[in-house]
Amino acid sequence: ILNYDIMARFRRRTCIILLLFILFICSIMMALKTLRPDRAGFGDPFGLGLLPELQQRTVVLDNKQNSLNRVQGDTVTRVSNFHSIAVNTMKASVPPVNKLEEELSSPNYNFHIFYYSWFGNPQFDGKYIHWNHPLLPHWDPKIANNYPKGRHNPPEDIGANFYPELGSYSSKDPSVIEAHMKQMRSASTGVIVLSWYPPGMADENGEPTDDLVPVIMDYAHKYNLKVTFHIEPYKDRDDRSMYHNVKYIIDKYGGHPAFYRHKTSTGRFLPMFYVYDSYVTIPEIWANLLTVSGSQSIRNTPYDALFIALLVEERHKHDIHRSGFDGMYTYFATNGFSYGSSHHNWASLKAFCDSNNLMFIPSVGPGYIDTSIRPWNNHNTRNRVNGKYYETAFSAALLVRPEIISITSFNEWHEGTQIEKAVPKRTGQVVYLDYKPHKPNVYLELTQKWSEKYRKEQEQWLM
Q: What is the CA radius of gyration of the chain?
């Protein structure tokens, strides 16, 4: 009986000590939790930071301050309710850094992002443009008859599966342009690839936008971003018209401090032009413009540049080489949609480019969905998987060690490839997709994370 009583007291004492130890550990954990930064970033690689249960454990990127020290360029004026700061590399002293500047990573000029300035609304344009996009019929009438027809009716019903935080905005609105530049800068992208048609021309659902280029470049310069041009397949695009339009762009915009020039392996600084649907024109026509012996040759002239062709099918790589292009990009954010957009083909494409002195620029995207304008195209939808699809694309791109990565897109809302801020919205019978359980800026933060990862890995490639 005595031994039993001693053992019982020993067990009680042990339980009390264990309970006190657990309470001590819990109090320590609660104290540490209060020390967590207010703005913790995504610290875990390859999407772990996106898991909701792990969000409370993410940490600020260790190199954020180092990124700030690398900010170079011209005066950058911050607005809103934050303090303003000027960053001027001509000064020897380091200027003070305020809270807003801490949130803006340095631009990565090897991250190029496709940007569209074709949106309009009644306040700035007298009508809605592109937000009221028509539903496009399938080419097979038997299939087309099974799907709705007509146009979208903004502002509640827009031609997109997601809804922008800025609403059905106008690309002419200065506050919208500035918000876009700030978002792209916060994502640590460096070069805006601006969709461009010649003066007086536009896509079939839009209006001419060339007059907007100077304003976009001014705001880009304010945020230390650069602008290059994504030349769209305008009517009668050939070697002659391309020569005149490249000359027009360089003459009119080439002197702007935001005009992008790429440093080549030979040390030259050349403009860069992405050429969408380049495969529509035969190689012989392109060769007139892009080879030294061509009848309309732009080579070794004041208008020489780097021309990047769109690769869709595998055979296009040979046509691109014959045409005299300087490189290729894949554009589409749909893994498996085309040969070029399939991640598993990037290694062989990079090898082909390396052996033929071409640039390979893979295009990564956060997902794809265009059923708001092509309701019959469900089979090409790519679910975002809460950011994991985007991270998988970045991971595949880094494996081939590209000189440049392009991002599809900042704001191609029709195809659901945007990384611009989106918000939940339900109107009538329309329920828009959103970025939940994450915040509207989740894809900007992911882009910034991978921009930093790219910088680190690139340093290893060059060693």
A: 26
H/E stretch holding 12: helix 2-33
Asked if residue 121 has pLDDT above 80, the reply is yes
- The reply to whether 367 falls in a domain is yes
The three-class DSSP label of residue 61 is coil
Classify 229 as helix, strand or coil. Answer: strand
Which amino acid is present at 457?
E
Domain around 277: 109-462
The CATH number of whichever domain residue 183 belongs to comes to 3.20.20.80
Could you write out the DSSP letters of every residue in 374-410?
-TT-GGG-B--GGGHHHHHHHHHHHHT--S-EEES-S
Does 258 fall in a domain?
A: yes
Q: Which pair of structure tokens corresponds to residue 128?
A: 């809605």
Query: Quick one: which H or E segment has residue 309?
Result: strand 306-310
Residue 344 domain-assigned? yes
Question: How many separate domains does the chain show?
Answer: 1
The average pLDDT across 94-102 equals: 44
Mean pLDDT within 336-355? 98
- Residues 171-199: what's their mean pLDDT? 98
Residue 379: inside a domain, yes or no? yes
State how far the Cα of 411 lies from the Cα of 393, in Å rounded to an integer: 18
